[in-house]
Amino acid sequence: MSILKKVLKIVLIALLVLVIVVGSYVAYVFIAYHRLGDSDITPKSGGAGAAKIGTEYNIVTYNIGFGAYEDDYGFFMDGGTQSRAWSKERLDANLKNINNLLVNQKANLYFLQEVDFNSTRTYGVDEREYFTFEKMSSVFAQNYDSPYLFYPILKPHGASKSGIMTFSDFAINSAKRVELPVETGFMKLLDLDRCYSKSRVATEDGKELVLYNFHLSAYTSDGTIAADQLEMILKDIDGEYQKGNYCIAGGDFNKDLLGDSSKYFGISGENYTWAKPIPAQTFEKHNASLVAAVDKNNPVPTCRNADGPYNDKQYVITIDGFLITPNVSLVNTEVIDTQFKYSDHNPVKMTFKLADNKN
Do 11 and 102 share a domain, yes or no? Predict the structure, then answer.
């Protein structure tokens, strides 16, 4: 056999092996893909008493970016180069800083998103253990459980398990995970699973304060699935409001809550599918209204596109906020300006009161 034929044979064998490996991996990803479905959640004990009518309370929502998105971090799916937290040591320090930041807000309720456990990207750390607010009840709903992603090649993102956490000064009497719709086809492998958690707290008038915590889809083909997810949450809220219950929903909408954030921050987001505004007619047939925090004299965004370390030329937007029913009165809302030191998001704080229920 000539040298050329030997080389050709080696090349063909190598290509065959490569095809088998790639094919096996693709098959693994599709076979391993699954959805978690609806489920009841047992709240962690804590909290006390019923929410009072007419009393001011504070709630904070914060997407913690799985504890990895420090201000010098750029994520590979956003155009950066990083796939995991810088190191286990930096992750530990950053999570402690996030917890301290939140504790200092002295809020009555907290909604957290992208809280990892047993994930490659966060070195197997159970991030839920960092957020043990004293005497609060809590609920954790797993948002997704993804198969191992062999990309980037040199430092794969790996397998991810992440969820959303709700904390309350009042006892959470019951809670559930509710599955949201996701895209079909190949895109479902990029966007993973999605859900919202629904927690119930007693109020002094015999009704309930129903808390919805969510993180809507981002990595989609055109951004419309997040609108479908929001529609499902709004319909759920309608049902609770018709019963006379008070509803607060909050989290990461992955939609431009200001309609056009570039008017406030000067950078266009037309190239980002997750940066689209919520369709104008969305709230016309529903009982909840949108609460989007913006100080027109000193606007602070809630999210940056993590295509590299944070800088003043980077695309920023407001995508984190709340929904409230008419029997919940808005007192104030603000973005807590961290300069994206701990996450690619800034926390959003809302002060509210439960109004006399006329429903």
Answer: no
Per-residue pLDDT, 192: 67
How far apart are alpha carbons 211 and 209 in whole angstroms? 6
Report d(CA 226, CA 278) in Å as an integer. 9
Instruction: Look up residue 174 and give its two tokens.
Output: 């019951």
d(CA 107, CA 103): 8
149: in domain: yes
Q: Are residues 16 and 163 in the same domain?
A: no
pLDDT digits (tens, 9 = 90+) for 231-251: 999 999 999 999 999 999 999
Kindly report the pTM of this predicted structure: 0.92
Q: Which amino acid is at 302?
A: T
All residue ranges of the chain with pLDDT < 70 are 1, 21-23, 25-34, 185-192, 220-223, 357-359
Give the β-pairing of 39-41 and 172-179: antiparallel
Q: 347 is in which domain, residue-wise?
A: 37-354
Vertex 60: Cα angle to 55 and 64 (nearest 5): 165
Instruction: Name the DSSP letter for residue 284.
Output: T
107 φ, ψ (degrees, to nearest 5): -80, 160
Q: Over the range 216-248, which residues count as b (16 or more CB within 10 Å of their CB) and which as e?
A: bbbebeebebbbebbeebbebbeebbeeebbbb
Hey, is 267 helix, strand or coil? coil
Can you tell me the distance from the alpha carbon of 98 to that of 267, in angstroms, rounded to the nearest whole number?
27
